[in-house]
Amino acid sequence: MEWRLDKDRPICPQIEELLAAGIARGEFAAGERLFSVREVALQAGVNPNTVQKAFSELERDGLIFSRAGSGWFVSEDTSRAVRQVEELARLRTAAYYQGMRALGKERPDMIRMLEEVSDE
Amino acid sequence: MEWRLDKDRPICPQIEELLAAGIARGEFAAGERLFSVREVALQAGVNPNTVQKAFSELERDGLIFSRAGSGWFVSEDTSRAVRQVEELARLRTAAYYQGMRALGKERPDMIRMLEEVSDE
DNA sequence: ATTACTGTATTAGTACAATAATACGGTTTG
DNA sequence: CAAACCGTATTATTGTACTAATACAGTAAT
Asked: What residues of B are in contact with residue A110 (Cβ under 8 Å)?
């Protein structure tokens, strides 16, 4: 797994989102064991405490669960991950739309710029 | 002017962006006097220091300038504001696109969601 | 000139995210 | 059993954004 983290945004939610997206798209199957906290911290170049926090919040959301001393595992019900990612995508889209409106851009401008950006 | 600030993002750049956008779209003409630091702070409900910092950075970018004791004014060359806002819109669009890709969304998904969001 | 605004600067305090360095106990494996 | 992994918890420290409370000097109007 590639941990492409944006330095200008809080790391913890980014780890949550990347993992949730991986589960939602089926990259990690139900019941499968995940990387350990220390592994992720090493790979992503962040502090283990930050990873632990991210995992704990995903556990609170019911996406993953831990067995003390053994590791982290994907929950049986992966539909939660799908719904959570869908909701996040909607929120991001709304934020993008409002932000662009504040800059004086309308929907056609956004679509045009999206096409420019994705043609690279 | 309406100062609609997002609590979950740093305030200072938000003020910069709103003001730059106002200049870019011609809401504030070249040479025109702007609100005072204290006025903006009061209207937006933030600290005067934060507004001062935002204004100073816009001055560094050449969008506005100050006359000590008198106030802040829009620079003669407003094309800088236009270019700056255009660049910001591009950056935002790229960030949105990459972020959505990380969530497993493709361009058609984004355009569909944009249409859903803007129909409200 | 006095008054009431301006911009500007300084210092301190608060809140939060992330880092750093450990420590403890559970699980697995040889 | 012992070693090497796990998750978990704690305390301290750093960096940043923002707030708070002033203070000082320039400008403009009465």
From this structure: 93, 114
Residue type present at position B29? A
Report which of B18, B71, B65 is spatially closest to residue A100, judged by C-alpha positions: B18
Residues near B15 by beta carbon (within 8 Å), at least 6 away in sequence: B3, B5, B40, B44, B46, B50, B51, B54
Question: How many CA atoms within 13 Å lie on the side-chain side of B27?
Answer: 16
Give the model confidence (pLDDT) of B4-56 as tens digits.
999 989 999 999 999 999 999 999 999 999 999 999 999 999 999 999 999 99
- Alpha carbons B14 and B44: distance in angstroms, whole number: 11
pLDDT in tens, A6-45: 998 999 999 999 999 999 999 999 999 999 999 999 999 9
Angle at A80 between CA A77 and CA A81, to 5 degrees: 105
Rounded CA separation B88/B82 (Å): 10
Q: Is the CB of A81 under 7 A from strand C?
A: no
Could you identify the residue whose CA is nearest to the C1' atom of nucleotide D8? Answer: A68
Q: Say which CATH topology domain A11-80 has.
A: Arc Repressor Mutant, subunit A (1.10.10)
Question: Residue ranges per domain, chain A?
Answer: 11-80, 89-119
Beta strands (DSSP E) in chain A are 64-67, 71-74
